[in-house]
């Protein structure tokens, strides 16, 4: 069992899936992955789109920061900062990895409770 706020987790998932659809490209495959271990519930959104350049990765959770390669795709640069805050409010950890030109994965990790 994991204790999560239904509204926060729903909004976080919607945001991550929306971003994947918006930025990964028309030919990308997007996966929603769940994993339950003895200690954690992990929810990931992974795509095989363009990825995020290394120069942008360290600033990605900064409010209002937009990746230069996003071109004409509309957005505020708030989405990932908000998702990170939601995950933290639920005592979880939020991280990502990206290999430019190969894949990107955003992961929310929550500790199981007794």
Low-confidence stretches: none
Distance between the termini: 7 Å
Which structural class do you get from the secondary structure elements?
alpha+beta
Instruction: Encode the helix/strand succession as letters.
Output: HEEHHEE
Query: Number of helix segments?
Result: 3
Number of strands: 4
Oligomer: single chain
What is the fold-level CATH name, i.e. the topology? Heat Shock Protein 90
Question: Could you give the order of strands across the largest sheet?
Answer: 1-2-4-3
Tell me the major beta sheet.
4 strands, antiparallel
CATH class: Alpha Beta
| Rg (C-alpha, Å) | 14 Å
Q: Could you tell me the mean pLDDT?
A: 88
Which superfamily, in CATH terms, is the homologous superfamily?
Histidine kinase-like ATPase, C-terminal domain
What fraction strand?
25-35%
Quick summary:
By secondary structure, the protein is of the alpha+beta class. It is built from three helices and four strands. Helix content is 30%, strand content 27%.
Write up what this structure looks like.
With 114 residues, the chain is α+β, with helices and mostly antiparallel strands. The chain has one domain (6-111): 2-Layer Sandwich (Heat Shock Protein 90). It is built from three helices and four strands; from the N terminus they run αββααββ. The chain has helices at 6-24, 54-57, 79-89, and strands spanning 30-36, 40-47, 93-99, 103-111. It has a four-stranded antiparallel sheet. Strand 3 and strand 4 form a beta hairpin. Helix 1 (6-24) runs antiparallel to helix 3 (79-89). The radius of gyration is 14 Å and the shape is globular. The termini are close together. The model has no long low-confidence stretch (mean pLDDT 88).
């Amino acid at each position: 069992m994991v204790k999560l706020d239904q509204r926060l987790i729903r909004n976080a998932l919607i945001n991550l899936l929306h971003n994947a659809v918006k930025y990964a490209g028309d030919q990308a495959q997007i996966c929603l992955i769940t994993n339950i271990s003895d200690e954690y519930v992990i929810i990931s959104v992974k795509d095989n789109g363009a990825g995020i350049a290394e120069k942008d990765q360290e600033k990605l959770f900064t409010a209002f920061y937009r990746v230069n390669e996003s071109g004409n795709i509309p957005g505020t640069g708030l989405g990932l900062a908000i998702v990170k805050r939601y995950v933290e409010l639920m005592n979880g950890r939020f991280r990502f990895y990206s290999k430019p030109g190969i894949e990107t994965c955003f992961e929310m990790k929550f500790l199981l409770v007794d």
